[in-house]
Structures are given as structure tokens and as C-alpha cells.
UniProtKB/TrEMBL annotation:
Belongs to the glycosyltransferase 87 family. InterPro entries: GT87, UCP010361. It is found in: Cell membrane. Keywords: Cell membrane, Membrane, Transferase, Transmembrane, Transmembrane helix. Coiled coil: none annotated. It is a multi-pass membrane protein. Pfam families: GT87. It comes from the Bacteria. This is Glycosyltransferase family 87 protein. It comes from Streptomyces pathocidini. The chain crosses the membrane at residues 43-63, 145-166, 178-208, 214-240, 252-272, 310-329, 336-356, 376-398.
Length: 487
């Protein structure tokens, strides 16, 4: 008789057994994991291994910032770009009034910005880090310590992300190594405070996968209070719940999101409305900026594209509507992670600015939507090219007449690499939606491991000529597989 532990181990999908790139890469550490290997057993569970790898890679990312920590942030504007170690964190410690103990949103900041231009929960994160920063010593030393404090807090967020991704797909915990080992994750983790929103979003997806829509909604609301993009996840959930007849669960999630967002924002909204509005007015008024295809058009034509915000909003709504139609038309209901990735990718692709750390929004979603190393690494290679490209371009623009670095034409190629890499991964995910037999997550008989109440639920509303065939196939086969997996 096999033990319960052995049965669980047998159910766990090992990437080296199904992914040629993972198997080839494993040769660096001794080859694919065997059936009787200790890795993944005892204390070395997949979740713990993934968390430790994520922390190790995060630490390597901190080491990559060492030239800037040792002086490039303070003594040379160009050096922090040529070493590709720039971070907003030490610069904003003084520029946003934290060094002077100004209260975010309430106190005016000397200079053009006037108020902190970040959402409330991110502002609180920044303020807590400033409380933990000693007040003695030179400003440069305090900026260094402020970056270290934030890096420590963000490392916790990175570990939370890795654990949540590992636990979202119960039988595929090793897919979270895509997150832990992602080069762009390590390179961009300490540029800004995005990991807070990413961690809350990953936790929200974990709660939804455990059929806890209220908790998922609360976490989405908190994530939206830290960064705007997590609210987009409510769109895919609406379409999927509509198709599966789970509107009540969607309503519960929305109520939780709205309530938690208001709890965080209402005090600042009521007591410091001008400071609270700064994030939203800044986002609307911000011109075409780094990383967007709008910048390529603007630089090539000399047109500032003052109407880009309206065009970007219209394109986002149009493409999200197309994703919704895809979800209702597909021969099998798409997985939540697939639609979540597509919607956030659309937001990233058509936005009028793409900061290099925005890739953090997509990495956990990509690992859940398309857990294949080849496709993931192709995309990551493009993002690393962009990461290097933007710093070399800033080195060029800050070098004056010396003109070292990457000229505008070279930077435009780096932007195209980012756009094409993201579009490539989107195309693969769309193909998996239209041809569900190509979806690697479903090849073991799973339906939607991240879907929670949607997992194994029958369709009640679909579009297209596939409707009868889809319902017949579902009634004949899906319940049998779903019941066998939970038997």
C-alpha cells in the first residue's frame, strides 16, 4: 500500500518530466529529479525551495545595485545608468520629503511635484520605511539605509509572491521557479515599490483558487490601493463567472475589493483631498514617456501626441472587450490566470509609459498562464534587453556632448524588443485558449487550478457555433475527470 505522502508526490508535476528546457537546464545541478529524490520531500518541500530560491535571486539583484549604493546614486548621474543600477528609492527619500519628516499627502513638498504621486498604500509603505531609517548621519548615509530598509521589506514581498504562486496551482508548485529565477524579477525588484501590489495580487489569486472570493476581493482592493493595475483582474473574473453562472461569487469579490479600497483611501481622501488626488491627476496629465510605442511614434514624427491618454484608454477598453469575447467564445472556458495575464499585458502594451519595473506585474501571471520555460525565457530575454536599453539611453541623454550610451534609434529597438516579447507570450496564451489541448496546465486532466469556484463548473452562457459540442463534451468527459481528480 502506498502512503499518502507518496501519493501526493506522484500527483506533483515535475517540470523536468514534461519540459525539455527545464530538463536540459537541470543538468547544471545534476540532471532531472528522480522519483526517489529527496528534493521536494521532508523539509525541502517545493514551496520552501521556491521561497529560498526567490530570496537568493533577490539578494543577487541587490548585489547588482552595489555600484550605485557605493556612490553612483550620489556622485554621477550618468554612472548609475551605465552600471544599470538606478533606483527611485534613495532619490525619493529626500525629493518627496521623507528625509524632512513631511507627512505624505498632507504636507506640501518643495518643488514642482507638491504632493506624493503614489497611491495611498504605497505611500504608507514608504512612510513606514522612513520611520525605520535612523535620523543621524549624512543625507547620503540615510538614503543608503532607506534603500536597505525598503529592500528588506520588498524581499518579504518577493517571498510572499513566490509562495503564493507555488500554492495557487496545487499540483504544479514548481512552476513558481519561473518567478523565482526570472532575470527581470531580480534586476527590477528594488527600482520602485511595485512588489507590494504584486504580492497582494498574488495573494488574491491564491485566495480565489481556494474558493474564498471575499478574501480575494479584499486583497484586490488593497492591491489597487497600492497600484492601479490589480483592479483589472475583476474584468476576467466577471466574464468567467458569467460563463459559469457564478455571478454571486463575483459580486462578493467586488464588494470586498470596494470595501477594502475605501477603508484604506477614505481617511486620506477626506482629510487631504488635494494630496490624495495627486496620483490620479499625475497619471492623467503625464505626457508620453519611456518604454511605450507612443514614444517611438512621438520621436519619429516630432509630434508630442498630447491626445495619447485618450487613445490609450480607448485601445485598452477595445482590447479588453476582445478578450472578453474570446473568453465567451472559446471552445472551453479559459483559465483565470490566462485572462488575467492577457488583460494586464494589454494595459502594459498600450499604456503611455512603461517603466522597467512594470515587468513585475506580469511575471507571476505569466508563470501561471503559460508555465513553459522556452516561452518564458524568450520573453524574459526581451525584457532584459529593454532593461539595459533604457539605462543606456538615459546615459546618452545625460552625457551632454560626449554622447556615450544608446541613441534614440537604439532605444526604440529596445522598446520594440519589449513589445514583441510581450506580444509573443500573449499570442501563445491566446493559442492555448483557442486550442485547450495545447494548454500544458490541462494536460493532466485539470480544468482551472487557479479558478476556485470556477474549477470544474459547467458552462451556462457561451457564444458561437461551438455551443452544443462544448456542452456535450463537458457533460460526457469533464465531470468524470474532475471527479476522478478529487475522488
Amino acid at each position: 500500500m502506498t502512503s499518502v505522502h507518496e501519493d501526493r508526490q506522484r500527483q506533483t508535476v515535475r517540470p523536468t518530466a514534461e519540459d525539455g528546457v527545464a530538463a536540459a537546464g537541470s543538468e547544471l545541478i545534476g540532471g532531472p529529479v528522480g522519483r526517489r529524490a529527496l528534493l521536494g520531500t521532508g523539509w525541502w518541500t517545493p514551496v520552501r525551495v521556491v521561497a529560498l530560491v526567490a530570496i537568493g535571486m533577490f539578494a543577487l539583484g541587490m548585489v547588482q545595485k552595489l555600484p550605485c549604493y557605493n556612490g553612483d546614486w550620489f556622485f554621477g548621474a550618468g554612472a548609475q545608468y551605465t552600471h544599470a543600477c538606478y533606483s527611485d528609492i534613495p532619490h525619493l527619500y529626500n525629493a518627496r520629503g521623507f528625509a524632512a519628516d513631511l507627512v505624505p499627502y498632507f504636507d506640501r513638498i518643495p518643488g514642482d511635484m507638491e504632493y506624493l504621486e503614489y497611491p495611498v498604500l504605497t505611500g504608507l509603505f514608504m512612510e513606514v520605511a522612513s520611520w525605520l531609517t535612523p535620523t543621524g548621519g549624512s543625507l547620503q548615509h540615510r538614503e543608503q539605509i532607506y534603500w536597505l530598509v525598503n529592500a528588506g521589506l520588498l524581499m518579504i514581498c518577493a517571498a510572499v509572491i513566490a509562495v503564493c504562486v507555488a500554492r495557487t496551482h496545487r499540483h504544479r508548485p514548481w512552476d513558481a521557479l519561473l518567478v523565482a529565477l526570472a532575470p527581470a524579477f531580480a534586476l527590477t525588484a528594488t527600482i520602485n515599490w511595485d512588489l507590494l501590489a504584486v504580492a497582494l495580487t498574488a495573494a488574491a489569486m491564491l485566495m480565489w483558487s481556494r474558493s474564498r472570493p471575499l478574501a480575494a476581493g479584499v486583497l484586490i482592493g488593497l492591491a489597487t490601493a497600492a497600484k492601479l493595475y490589480p483592479v483589472l483582474l475583476l474584468g476576467p473574473l466577471l466574464v468567467l463567472c458569467l460563463r459559469a453562472g457564478r455571478r454571486r461569487e463575483w459580486g462578493t469579490a467586488v464588494c470586498g475589493a470596494v470595501a477594502s479600497w475605501f477603508v484604506v483611501n477614505l481617511p486620506v481622501m477626506a482629510l487631504a483631498p488635494e494630496g490624495w488626488r495627486k496620483f490620479y491627476t499625475f497619471s492623467q496629465e503625464r505626457p508620453v514617456d519611456f518604454g511605450s510605442f507612443w514614444l517611438i511614434i512621438s520621436q519619429r514624427t516630432g509630434n508630442p501626441l498630447e491626445g495619447a491618454n485618450a487613445w490609450a484608454t480607448a485601445l485598452t477598453l477595445l482590447l479588453c472587450a476582445a478578450i472578453g469575447a474570446l473568453a465567451l467564445y472559446a471552445p472551453r472556458r479559459p483559465r483565470f490566470a490566462q485572462l488575467a495575464f492577457l488583460v494586464v499585458a494589454v494595459f502594459v502594451l498600450v499604456n503611455k509609459v512603461y517603466s522597467p519595473q512594470y515587468v513585475l506585474w506580469l511575471i507571476p501571471l505569466a508563470a501561471l498562464a503559460r508555465p513553459r520555460w522556452r516561452d518564458f525565457l524568450v520573453w524574459q530575454a526581451c525584457e532584459v534587453m529593454y532593461f539595459i536599453g533604457i539605462w543606456m539611453y538615459l546615459a546618452y541623454t545625460s552625457s551632454g556632448d560626449k554622447h556615450y550610451g544608446l541613441p534614440p534609434e537604439g532605444y526604440q529597438l529596445a522598446i520594440l524588443a519589449h513589445l514583441l516579447g510581450t506580444l509573443y507570450l500573449c499570442a501563445i496564451v491566446v493559442r492555448d485558449v483557442l486550442l485547450p489541448e495545447r494548454d500544458v496546465v490541462r494536460q493532466d486532466g485539470s480544468d482551472d487550478p487557479s479558478g476556485g469556484v470556477l474549477d470544474g463548473a459547467p458552462d451556462v452562457f457561451v457564444l458561437g457555433h461551438h455551443r452544443r459540442a462544448r456542452h456535450a463534451a463537458h457533460h460526457e468527459g469533464t465531470y468524470v475527470e474532475w471527479g476522478a481528480r478529487r475522488g
